[in-house]
Structures are given as C-alpha cells and as structure tokens.
From TrEMBL:
Transcription regulation keyword on record: yes
PROSITE patterns: HTH_LACI_2
GO molecular function, one term: transcription cis-regulatory region binding
Lineage summary: Bacteria, Pseudomonadati, Pseudomonadota, Gammaproteobacteria, Enterobacterales
Signal peptide: none
Organism: Pluralibacter gergoviae (Enterobacter gergoviae)
PANTHER family: HTH-TYPE TRANSCRIPTIONAL REGULATOR GALS, LACI-RELATED TRANSCRIPTIONAL REPRESSOR
Record's protein name: LacI family transcriptional regulator
Pfam families with a match to the protein in the record: LacI (PF00356), Peripla_BP_1 (PF00532)
InterPro entries in the record: HTH_LacI, Lambda_DNA-bd_dom_sf, Peripla_BP/Lac1_sug-bd_dom, Peripla_BP_I
Length: 343
C-alpha cells in the first residue's frame, strides 16, 4: 500500500497559523523589504518552527535571479592537492552563504564537458574550473555568461580570470635546491607534454640546470600522467637506464609512485636518489621520508577565487600567488622537527 503524499507547507499556511498576511510572512523570511513589528515577527517565526516550513529554493532563485550556488569542476578529486583545494573552496563558499556543487571529471575530457554543461543548466552563480587537459571548455562557459575562474594557467588570449602560482619559477626553485645540494645529474618526471603546466615545469627545471652550467638531458625527461601509477611507470622507465642522482617530480602523486618503484629495486631516498616534488600537501610531510615539496597557499587561493566570483564584472583578472618550498628529508636535508598540519 503506497504512502499518501505529504503536502508541502506554503507561506499561506504560515500566514494562517500566525494570523497575518502572506506578504508579511515574505518580509520576515526575506528580512524585508518592509519592516515587521517585533511581536508579529515572533508569531511568524513560531509558525515556521511549528509547521516545519522550508523555503522553496527554486522559486527563490527565479525571483531573485541567483541560485546561491557555485560550481567546481576538477580533473580528479582523488588527487590530494585537488581535494585540499576543493575543501578550502567549499569552506569559503559556505562562509559566503553559498553551496558548492562538485563535478569530478575522473580524468575524462568528455565527462568534464558533461559536468560543465550540467552545472550551467543548473544556473550556478559562478564556476571554478581546472581542466583535464590543455583544451578546457571555456567557450561553452563564456557563451552562457556565467562568471568563471580558472585554477590553472590558461592562454592569455582566452581572456579568462585565473588564480595561479608561477609554476616555472616554482620548478626552478625546486631544481635549484637539488643543485645547491651538489647534485648534477637531475631528471624530471613530468605530466603530459602537451599540457601548459607541464611545459612551465619543464622550463623551470631546464632553466635551473642551464644557469648552473649543466646541460639538460632529454633522455631524463619522463612524461606521464599526474598519478601514482604514472609516477611508478615513469620511474620504472628511468630505472631501465642510467640512474640520475636526483629527481624533480612535478606532482606529489608521481613522487609517491616513484618511491614505490625505487623501493622495489632496493633503492632508498635520498641516499640513492634525492627527490623533490611539486604540489605538496600535508601528505608530503607525513611520508617517510618526508618530501621536500613546493606548496601552494590553498586557503588564500580559495578565498580569492570566491571573491573574484562575488565581484565579477566581466573583465578578466589574473592573480598570482607566492609559493613555498617546504623542506623535508627526501632531498638530503636534515629531518624536520615536525610535520605541518595544514595549508
């Protein structure tokens, strides 16, 4: 036997319970536009509590022109750096009275397109986005008029708002740190070569070597996916040839995969191979050995992204943040006193 449908409580029901008009109920719920006497307000609030009334979000969105939601599309939420950024964005959105709707593309470009399209159809008030590859679905978003902030470097001619760190400079500093240890044979495990951030990180690695009078060896550029498996596979390819003395992994997950591959060959870090990585999270600090890693200011970046959506005026804005090279044990430095607990 099916259960009878429960009728939704309406503002008219609240008005009858409180002995007032529907308009006055609306003024109380929306805090205006007209004032309501304190005693009447208390009766309306008591009626709302008694009946369990919940405002109709869809109707409110139609009336106000805002859904009080933001969309976030990321390549893969399993990546700790991306999940830490998503968490920070959710916190900032909530503080602004918004709900953050997450779209996880699972490293699939077509799924990413469907997620972007779905969020646009839901009329989110703004979209925060980092793409699976170097061809983000920006034209679709721009055609909708939805405010957009990218969490990655995009080509300047696209006229898109973005927040980022200087990844070339960060890669330079990470590689430079290895050089300062005295290492001269330094390889790089990077992302897919066609990606802009991969190109930036290779450029920084190459620049640091050349400034030190070292010749970058193309044979020591190992391109792979930004995953543990990618790092593992790249390290296996590296181990099949002459072993470098140091390695810059351009992603924390790649570094973890590399560590597993090295352990399988009886090699240790940093004794046999020194290692630094990019996009470190709290996981880097708790690893054994702790990883020397470039850290991005995730909380500050998330706060700025939400602020850019709130103040959207259609003009593209680029905001660059400083980064930090957090020293761990994997490069050969002395052990740190304690692991960091937050970004």
């Amino acid at each position: 036997m099916s259960k009878p449908l429960v009728r939704r409580v309406t503002r008219a029901d609240i008005a009858r319970e409180a002995g007032t008009s529907v308009a006055v109920v609306s003024y109380v719920i929306n805090n205006g536009p007209r004032p309501v006497a304190p005693a009447t307000r208390e009766r309306v609030l008591a009626a709302i509590k008694k009946t369990g009334y919940r405002p109709n979000g869809i109707a409110r969105a139609l009336a106000s022109g805002t859904t009080r939601t933001y969309g976030l599309v990321v390549p893969n939420i399993a990546n700790p750096f991306i999940s830490s950024m998503a968490h920070a964005l959710q916190q900032e959105a909530f503080a602004d009275g918004r709900v953050l709707l997450l779209g996880d593309a699972g490293d699939d470009r077509e799924r990413e397109r469907e997620l972007v399209n779905n969020l646009l159809h839901r009329q989110v008030d703004g979209l925060i986005y980092t793409s699976v590859d170097r061809h983000p679905w920006i034209e679709m978003i721009q055609a909708s008029g939805t405010p957009l902030v990218m969490l990655d470097r995009v080509a300047p001619e696209l006229q898109v708002s973005a927040i980022q760190v200087n990844e070339q400079r960060a890669a330079w500093q990470a590689t430079r740190h290895l050089i300062e240890h005295g290492y001269r044979e330094i390889a790089i495990i990077c992302g897919p070569l066609e990606m802009l951030n991969t190109q930036d990180r290779i450029s920084g690695w190459r620049q640091a070597l050349e400034e030190a009078g070292l010749t970058p060896d193309p044979a020591w550029i190992f391109a792979t996916d930004y995953t543990r498996q990618g790092g593992y596979d790249a390290a296996q390819r590296m181990l099949a040839g002459a072993l470098p003395r140091a390695l810059f992994a351009t992603n924390e997950q790649q570094a973890f995969g590399c560590l597993r591959a090295l352990a399988g060959h009886g090699l240790s870090v940093p004794d046999d191979l020194a290692l630094v990585c990019f996009n470190g999270t709290v996981e880097s600090a708790f690893n054994v050995p702790s990883l020397t890693a470039v850290r991005q200011p995730v909380i500050s970046m998330a706060r700025k992204a939400i602020e850019m959506l709130k103040q959207w005026d259609g003009e593209p804005e680029r905001c660059e943040f400083d980064f930090e090279l957090e020293i761990g044990e994997s490069c050969g430095c002395r052990p740190v006193a304690h692991a960091r607990k937050s970004n």
